Each structure stands twice: as structure tokens, then as C-alpha cells.
Amino acid sequence: MKYNYKWTLKDAVFTKDKGKVFSCFSCGGGSTMGYKLAGFEVIGCNEIDPKMMEAYRVNHNPKYSFLEPIQTFKLRDDLPQELYDLDILDGSPPCSSFSMAGNREKDWGKEKKFKEGQAKQVLDDLFFDFIDLAKKLQPKIVIAENVKGLLLGEAKSYVRRIYKEFDNAGYYVQHFLLNASKMGVPQKRERVFFIALRKDLAIPFLYQADMFTQLPKIEMQFYDREIPFQEIFHNYTDRPLSEHYKKFWDIRNNGDVDFSDSSARMGKNPNAQFQYKYLYMNKVANTITAGGKCVLFDYPRYRNFDELCECGSYPKDYNFMNNKSEYLIGMSVPPIMIARIADEIYKQWISKL
Predict the structure, then answer these.
(1) CA nearest 114: which of 159, 69, 59?
(2) Residue ranges per structural domain of the chain
(3) Which element (helix H / strand E) includes 335?
(4) Which residues are catalytic?
(5) For 57-106, what is each residue's pLDDT tens digit?
(6) What SS3 class is residue 65?
(7) Residue 324 CA: distances (Å) to CA of 54, 292, 327
(8) The whole model's pTM is what?
(9) For 20-226+333-352, which CATH class?
(10) Do the Cβ atoms of 311 and 285 come closer than 8 Å?
(11) Tens digits of residue pLDDT in 110-156
């Protein structure tokens, strides 16, 4: 295992010798920590949420930080010259419109207030604002992360538009569906990554993907051993179940996926409790979500702080400021997931440019 999911910022060694990165939709800096672990220098960020930006600045001390919507950030004419000489432009456009747990098509094209303190935005347009920024800055490589639901159903037409816009911006792009549990992260988390290489740099890497399409060749396959929850279990409770939810836990049966089974046994609507997922000791932990509703099958509690950090490959000494740990980690790309991707991009592309 190249990266240890039990780590601290104070003991980490960041070499900053692999290239420069700028992060958009940076949240608390999950992807930033991944690039830093892989040896990149992350010179700055753009984020709309003041609380997330506060945590980012405290933990990462960025050279440049822009607290504003990407719609205004992309129009700036006073950006530092260093942002026009990036190796990687990184971004995780908010993706709830395409999540299989959300309303999907019903929310497409609607203005939503993503979180308290933010302006209303059409969330499914943010990806294209990000591509507009890439077109302006022209980094060597662009990496964008999003939910698996983007590849399903009617959302596929959105993916086709992403490809078209990257092409218009001067990039070859391809996407990969990756699972963090195969990449050294003790959490089942499937995400799609769009990886784009600027066309003028791509000639040495081009191959014929099919009779019509050329793409810059890159491999993104990971086969790490999956890490069951018992290996990150810490025997203490800091988030117990309330008496209300303990009633569901008390009548659980082995094999139950979530509280909906218990709800049905009570004669109640099972659909009301499906979000409360069980964590089994012998299985990989479920995806950390912003709501933090995963419950241990063997103990009447949610994941504790240490388990949350290790599941998310977050450093134990990260300063969460006034943000709930499960919210911030659930909103973030696991650092080790990004580190593994960044390693491959450096090895297969950047080191050969």
C-alpha cells in the first residue's frame, strides 16, 4: 500500500516537485491533499462556501484563494499569471442533480441553493463553467470528478455535451469510473473522473480508440486489496443512536442493508428509513455522505471520528473548524483516491512532456 489511510498533516512529506495544481470547488481540500501527497504543489483554490474556504485556508494556507462563484471567477481579468501555467486544473462540480439518491431529471435546469450562505445556481451548468475556465487558463491537464449517476439513463446526453465542450476548449477527454475501495481507501465510493489532455501536447500519446476517435492513451486501473471495516474499527462512541433510531436497530436481522427492513417489521413505510445504512465488520464501509447516516450493525452508533477520517483517508489532525467532520469528509474526494490518479498522470503523461 503506497499511501497510508492513517496519517497526519504534521508528519506528511509534500515534495512539491511534480507540477502545479489549482483546485476549483475545493471544499475543505480533499483533492488538494491527494495532489500534495503525490508530490504536486497546489497553489490555490476557488470555493463558494465561506465555511469550507475557512477550513481550506487554515489547513492549506494557499497562495491564492478566491471565495466566489465560478461564474464570476472565470470572468476575472486580474488572475495571477501563475494560473496560466498550470500542470493540472482540478475540479469537482457539485453533482447532486445527477445522484441516484436525488431527484435527477426533476431537478435538471433548476436553480438551487446548494448550501446555506451560497447563491442560487443551476448546478448542472457548473461543469460547463469549469470547462470555460479551462479554456481560458489552458492548463496541460484537466481533471473533473463527479457522481456515478452521470453515466446512467438520460444523463448520458450530458456526458456527450461534456465531451463536446472539452473538444471546443482544445482538449482530448476520456472518463473513468473508479472505486475508492480498489485504490487503498477503506470506503466503497464510486466516482467518474474526466481526464483531459491539451491537444497540442497529446500527439506522442495518441492512439486509435475506434475507427473514428483518437485519444491520448492512459491507463486507470487499480486492484488494491479491499479493506474491511474491522480494520479501521475503533471501540468508542461519540455519535450514539437516538432512542428513536435505536428502536429500528434493536430489531435488525443479519443481512439487513438498512433500516427499511426494520421499518417494515414495525408495519411502517420502509422507504422512510432506507438512508440509514448498516456497516458490517467484514465488509468495506459504505460511502461517507454529507448526512452521515451509516450505522454499525454490531453497535448502536454512527461512525466515530477516527473511523470517519480513516474511511475518507483524511488526516487525523485536520482542523475542521466549525464544520461537522462527516459533512466535510462526505463532500470531499478521498485524498488517497486523488493521489493514486495523480501518480498515474504524472508517470504516464507529465513526466514525458
Answers:
(1) 69
(2) 20-226+333-352, 229-329
(3) helix 335-348
(4) 95
(5) 999 999 999 999 999 999 999 999 999 999 999 999 986 555 444 443 55
(6) strand
(7) 13, 10, 5
(8) 0.93
(9) alpha beta
(10) yes
(11) 555 555 455 555 567 899 999 999 999 999 999 999 989 888 877 78
